[in-house]
Specification:
Elements: H1 19-25, E1 31-32, H2 35-42, E2 48-53, H3 62-76, E3 80-85, H4 89-92, H5 106-121, E4 133-136, H6 138-141, H7 146-152, H8 159-162, H9 166-172, H10 180-183, H11 185-200, E5 202-208, H12 212-226, E6 231-235, E7 248-249, E8 252-253, H13 263-271, H14 275-285, H15 290-303, H16 308-322, H17 324-337, H18 348-354, E9 360-362, H19 370-376, H20 383-391, E10 395-397, E11 400-401, E12 419-424, E13 428-433
Parallel strand pairs: 2-3, 2-5, 3-4, 5-6, 9-13
Antiparallel strand pairs: 1-6, 7-8, 10-11, 10-12, 12-13
Length: about 425
């Protein structure tokens, strides 16, 4: 099922007076231009707003998902989104806190622009009176000469102000320093806002609070050039309650591309959310109402062991990103691994994804005796240990208990012709692959 099927079922919570109040309750406003003016603006006639995504990787990640869902909430309130994928800013890259970005080739950036546009399109509606539009800042940046850029845009920026921006200041004080290219990034982003203001009447930009300096470069440029006041919202950088960085699993980012982070890995990431974090995650990453989230908060307080809130969170977000069908397969796989479903019913991709983090081994055909399999998989350290495991009733192959220590597993038992799921006891699993 396509994630687009969710668009028609999504809605903002009618218990709030307006979308601004809901954004505040969900913890999505860390910093902004004039709050009273913003609330009035968002409660009034439809406005056009934008958020930018740079193709510095072939996929968006969970940090970008915060922005996509914020954009969707504003669209559901009747406002008109512009999804900008930065074909030009992606060639430079916004400054990182620690070191210079590696510049990718123009061909790579162009390819990634296409990938990211496809991802952005899944989360917004491109139909109706407030249909979203996709824009690419390369369209107005590429035709501009360096002299025109300096004369028409650069003259409005003051170096003293630019070097006070947090990210620039931190890089200037580091051994790495900052290149002129990255230093100029805020000018490029400011020009984007000006161009979208002129073309579409865009009066609001959203982004992460760590981008605040870049967001305000646009509001200031429009004030100087056009004499108009426009707005910006900076969403908070989400961190875990224990201080660790959100959106990381085993040292890897949680990407929205299924090839880079499988639906199973995504589901497990959310399922492992700490009790202290799960309510805030539900507010930010789901369209559950205030009443529903308060009920789940009560469940965390009264019966945390059921992990009801985590299961709702995992289902909703994985379904948003990968669709309900993929999520249902993930849940079926999780159950099947521990004997609560049919392993044979899992397609190969789901099986491989679900077992990708398990200990694994490769064995030759003709060596499929239970003792050898238990040892090869690492579930037991020795033949004698394997015999003891079988004797005690703790040896399983594809969830079938093996009681004969001399048993040889027939090739017909191989899942998809080449896999065996080994289990010792109730929960200790390993995967064995048997090449053809």
């Amino acid at each position: 099922m396509s994630t687009n099927t969710f668009l028609s079922s999504q809605s903002n919570d009618p218990s709030f007076a307006n979308v601004w109040q809901e954004l505040k309750w969900r913890g999505l406003v860390h910093v902004s231009t004039d709050e009273a003016e913003l609330e009035k603006l968002l409660a009034g006639e439809p406005i056009t707003y934008y958020c930018g995504f740079d193709p510095t990787a072939p996929s968006l990640h969970l940090g970008n998902l915060v922005q996509l869902l914020t954009m969707r909430r504003l669209q559901l309130a009747g406002h008109k989104p512009l999804g900008l994928v930065g074909g030009s800013t992606g060639l430079v890259g916004d400054p990182r806190p620690t070191a210079e970005r590696t510049m990718n080739t123009k061909e790579t950036v162009a390819e990634w622009v296409g990938y990211l546009q496809g991802q952005v399109q899944r989360f917004l509606s491109f139909e109706g009176e407030n249909a979203a539009r996709m824009v690419n800042n390369l369209d107005w940046t590429a035709p501009m000469s360096a002299l025109d850029f300096l004369r028409e845009i650069g003259k409005h920026f003051r170096v003293g102000t630019m070097i006070k921006k947090d990210i620039v200041a931190s890089r200037l004080n580091s051994e790495e320093g900052i290149s002129y290219a990255e230093f100029s990034y805020q000018i490029l982003q400011g020009m984007d806002y000006l161009e979208l203001f002129r073309q579409y009447g865009c009066v609001l930009q959203t982004g992460g609070s760590d981008q605040w300096g870049n967001l305000t470069s646009g509001t200031e440029l429009i004030r100087k050039v056009e004499g108009k006041s426009v707005h910006a919202i900076g969403t908070p950088l989400i961190t875990n309650s224990d201080g660790t960085k959100f959106g990381k699993s085993e040292g890897n980012a949680i990407w929205l591309d299924a090839a880079m982070c499988s639906p199973y890995a995504m589901y497990q990431f959310w399922l492992n959310t700490a009790d202290a974090d799960v309510v805030e995650r539900l507010k930010v990453f789901t369209f559950r109402s205030r009443t529903e989230i308060e009920e789940l908060e009560k469940a965390v307080a009264e019966r945390a062991h059921t992990r009801e809130a985590q299961r709702v969170l995992a289902y909703d977000v994985t379904s948003l990103v990968h669709g309900e069908e993929a999520t249902d397969k993930v849940i079926a796989a999780s159950a099947a691994l521990f004997g609560q479903g049919e392993l044979e019913a899992l397609d190969e991709a789901t099986l491989v994804s679900a077992t990708s983090q398990l200990p694994s081994a490769t064995v030759e055909r003709g060596s499929l005796n239970i003792i050898g399999l238990l040892v090869a998989s690492g579930l037991v350290p020795s033949n004698s240990g394997a015999r003891r495991t079988v004797a005690e009733g703790g040896a399983y192959v594809n969830n079938e208990k093996i009681t004969d220590p001399d048993a040889v597993i027939d090739d017909s038992k191989l899942l998809h012709g080449k896999y065996l799921l080994m289990r010792r006891g109730k929960r200790t699993l390993a995967m064995v692959e048997v090449p053809a």
